[in-house]
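Justification of computing resources. Each target in the renewal requires a structure prediction run like the one illustrated here; the chain below, 1034 residues long, is used simply to show the kind of job we budget for.
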Amino acid sequence: MTDRRRINGPAAATLPPVFLDDPVEEQKASRLIRSRPSDALRKLYLKTGVTPSASGSAYLEIETTFKSGVSGLKLSCSVHGPRSLPKSAPFSPHIILSAHVKYASFATKQRRGYIRDSSERDLSVHLETALRGAIIADRWPKSGVDIVVSIIEGDQDRGEAAGTGDETWDIMNVLSGCVTVASAALADAGIDCVDTVAGGVSALVVDADGAESVVMDPVPSEHGKIMAACCVAYLPSRDEVTNLWFKGNLEVSDAQWYTELVQKGIQASRTGFAMGEGESIDELLAITSYLEFKLWLHHRESDRSQPSSRRQLSSLESLQVRDCEHGIHICAVDRALLMGKKSRYGVILDAGSSGTRLHIYKWKDPARARHDASKDDLQSLPEIKTKKHWTLKIRPGVSTFADKPEEVGREHLQALIDHALENVPKENHKDTPVFLMATAGMRLLKPAQQNALTNEICHYLQQNTEFFLPDCGAHVQVIPGETEGLYGWLASNYLLGGFDHPDKHKHGKGHHTYGFLDMGGASAQIAFAPNATEAEKHANDLKLVRLRTLNGEPSEYKVFTATWLGFGVNQARENYVKQLVDTYAADAREIPDACMPKGLRTTLKGEPVQDQTSKDLTLVGTGKFDECLLKTYPLLGKDVPCEDSPCLLNGQHVPAIDFDVNHFIGVSEYWHTTHGVFGMTKGDKAYDFTTYQKKVMDFCNKDWASIESKLDARGKKDAKNAQEACFKASWLINVLHEGIGIPRIGIEHTSSPSHNSTKAALDKAKQKGYLDPFQPVDTIDGIEVSWTLGKMLLYAAGQVPPKIENDKLPVGFGSNVAGTPPDFQHAGSTWTPIDDSTLADDDDWGDTAEDLIDKAKSKSASGFFVFVLVLLVIFYFLRRKESRKRLYGSLNSLFRKSRRPGSPKRSRGLSGLTHKFFGGRPASYERVMEEGEASQFELGDIDSSDNEHSDGSEGSSRLGRSSGLATPKLNVERFDATAPASSGSALDRSGLVVRTESRERLVPNLQMLSAGRRSRASSPTRMKSPLITPLQED
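Resulting C-alpha cells:
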C-alpha cells in the first residue's frame, strides 16, 4: 500500500510517520515551553478557489510551534450553493444554512474509520451559529447552502501520548480555524454577507511556577495546564460577536477571568493571526487590515456563471500575513477589489453669469485604487474621469432669478438634476456629493439676494435628489474669485502632471508647478506658487493647500491667488463704452470706437445698427488698433495707489513673479481670444506677442464690409465674435503684458531657467509650449481645463485615508500656517467605506461600449459599417455565457460542412476561421481594457468661439484627467520572487513566507479530481475536493 493514510487501522493509538518520524523532535516537543509572548499568534496561510467543482472554497494552515515551518492545523472548506430547495420543501423567506465539520480518518492520533462523534456535531453547530449572523439571508428565499469543512490535520500536541486530554482543548483552535476558512469560502462563492467572520482563541493557563495568565492562540503542549479556554467568532463591521464557546471550570469568584478571556479572544480574531514575536499591542492597528478583505459579493447574482466573474473571484489566490524586519506587511486582498469595480461619483454645478453648467466626475474608491496602483502610482493623486455626455449647460444664469428665488429650482435646476440622476447610477446616489458653486454673476448681487438664492437651491436639491448634501453652507455657496482661481490652479497642475510627476517638470530653483490665469466675462483670476525667496517674503499672503496621495501621505503647496472683479472681458467692455460716452459731448449721436473694425456700427450694448438715421447713440468703428490699445490701458487701474508693494492691477498686491520658473497657462478668454477669430490653431505650439499682434492688426484694420462678406455663411455667432474680437484682443494684450507683466516673446527675453529635467522631457515640454512664460490652452492632452475639476480633486483626495491613523491634518486650504488654521476650508470629504449593501458593480464594458459607439457615430457615412460591426460585437459580449455559446453554435453550424464517417476530423466553420486568423485556443487568456483607453474618456468639443467662459463663470469646463486603467490585479507581496509559478496544481505554494513539506503528500494530483466535475447545485461529494500539497521545508 503506497498510501497509508487511507488505511483504516486498529483503534489503538499510533503515531503515523507522516506526522512525526524524528525521535529527537518528538522529545523536544514533549518538553516544549511557550517562548512567544502571550499575545503573539502563529503564522497563517489562507487560500481561496482551491476546489473547482464547488461554488466557493478555501484552504487554511497554521504553523506549529515546535518545528518552524511545519503546519499544525490543516483545514479545507467547500461551499455548495445557493441552490433552490425541493418543491416539496416548505417555503422559507431566508436561506437555509447547513454546516458540516468532519475529521479525516488520518487527522487525529487514533486511526479509525469515519464515525460522526459529539465533537464533530459540536463544531458543526457552533460554526453554523457563527456564520448565520454574517450572511444576508433574506436575499436567497427558499434556497439552501452547504458548508463542508474537512479537518485534514488536527492542531494537537503530537509529542504527547494519546489520552492526555490535549485534544479537548485543541478543539477550540479547530473551531477558530473553521470559522475563518468557512467565511473565506463563502466570500469565494459570492454569498451575500455583511462581512467576513474571524475566529480567535484565548486560554487561562498555569505556568510551571504556578502563575495564572491569559494567553492568545494557545497550544496545549506549550503550557503546564489549561484551566479554561474561549473561542470567539467576531464580525468586525458590526463590532459583534456571533458565537462564543467556553470550555473549562472556573469558580464564580473568578468572573474577571471570563471577561479577560473574551477580550483576548476578540483581540486574537482582530489581529488576523498576524502578531509575531516581539510585536506590541499597538501594532494590532496595522494588522486589522486582515479583516479588510470583506468579500460579500452581492452584485454577483447576474455574473455568477460568467468566466470573468470566476476569474475575479479566483484572484484571491492567497492571503498571507507575515512579519518583516521593517514592520508588519499584510499581503491581503483589499475589500474594494474583491467586491468588484467600485467607483465614487461627484456632481458639481458651475453657476456662472451666463448659465449653469453641470459636471459629473468619477474616480475609483481609494481602497480599490490603492490596491490596483503600482509603487509610483501610490505617490499620485486619485484619478478623476468624466465623459462628454456627463456635461450639460443651460441658460440663463442663476443670478437672473434674484427677484424670484422660489422659481430657480423648478425653472432652472430641474433639467440639470434630471441629467445627473440619469447618469449617476441610482445605487450611488446617497454616496455622491452634489455642489453648486456660484461665481462672478452671483458676486454682483446683494448679500440678501445671494442668501435667498443659495438657501432655495440647497432646499430644492435636498428635497428632489438623494445626493449627499449634509451642509448647505459648504455645498451651495458663492465662492470668492480667489477660491475659483485656486481650484483652477489645482486642475491645471493636475492635468499637466506637476503634482504626480514633479521630476518631469523641473523649472529650476526647486519649482515644478505652473501658474494659472483665467479670464471670463466678469472677473479675472491669477494663481501661482512664488519662488522660494518671494514665498518667504510674502508668506502671510499665501494659501496653504494640502492634498493627499493614494498612499495616504499629505502633499502641501504654498500658493498665491488673487481675483479682479470687473476685469472680465464683458465688464471691461462696459467700462470702456462708458468711458467713451463720458469723453464725448452729451449731444453727440455717433461715437468713434477705435476698438471696432472700420465701418461697423453698433448700439452701446453691441447690437448691429442697420438704420443710418437712428437717433440713438451709436458706436462707429474706426479700425485703429494702436489707438484702441492706448484707450483700454487706463482700465487696468495702474494709477491706483499700491499700499502693499508690489502690485499688478488696480493697486492690488501680488508677489513678484519670477518668469524663469513661473510658467503660466491661460484658459477661457485667454484661449478664445487668441485662437478664435485671429486664425491661431490648436497646432500652434506656443504664444508669442509679435505673431499674435500682427494677426490682430491685420484683422482690426480692415473694413467691416470686407470682414462681413466672409462671415455671411457662418451665422450670427461668428459675426458677433468678429465684432468683439478687436476689443478683447486689446484688453488681453494689456492685461497680460502691461498688467501682469508677461514678457513679450520676440521682443523681451527672460534668462534661461536652469532646467534639470532630461532633454527628452524638456523638448516635449517646449513643444507643448508649457515652459514659455505664457501659453493659452483649451485642453491638456485632450482634457479641457476647468476649475470644477480642481474642486472635485480636493474632494477625492480627502477620501483617501491618512497613512498614519491619528493624522489630524485634513485636506483643503487655508491661511499659510502650520496645522489647521481657523479659516481652513475642508475638502468636504472623509474616508468612509462604500455602502456595500446597495452598491452595484460598475459596468466598465458598458462604459467602453458607449465610447466606441460615440466614436463610430462621429464618423462619416464611410464608417457606418464599422459602427454596425461595433454594435454586433458589443451585443455578443454583453450576452450571458450560455447565450453566447448558443449563438456561436448556430453561426458555426452554418459554416460547418458534413464530414464523412471515418474521415479525419478538421477544424471547420467559425472555429476553423478563428483558428486560422488567431491561432489555436490558448489555455488561458487575460482580460484587458476593462476601464478603456485614455482617448475614450474625453468630453466633447465645444465651439471655441462661443463666449462661454469659465470665470464668472461663463467658462467652458468639462473634464478631468483620464487614462486607461490596468486590469485589476492582486497586490500580493512575494517573498520568493525567483520561484516560477507552477502550472500544475492550483494550490502550489509560490508566494509563501515559509515553505515546508510533510514527509508524505496528502493527495494524488489535481488532474485526478477534476475529471468528474459536478454541478455546483449538487450536494458535495465526500473526498472529491482537490487536496492540498503540504507546505515544504526549505
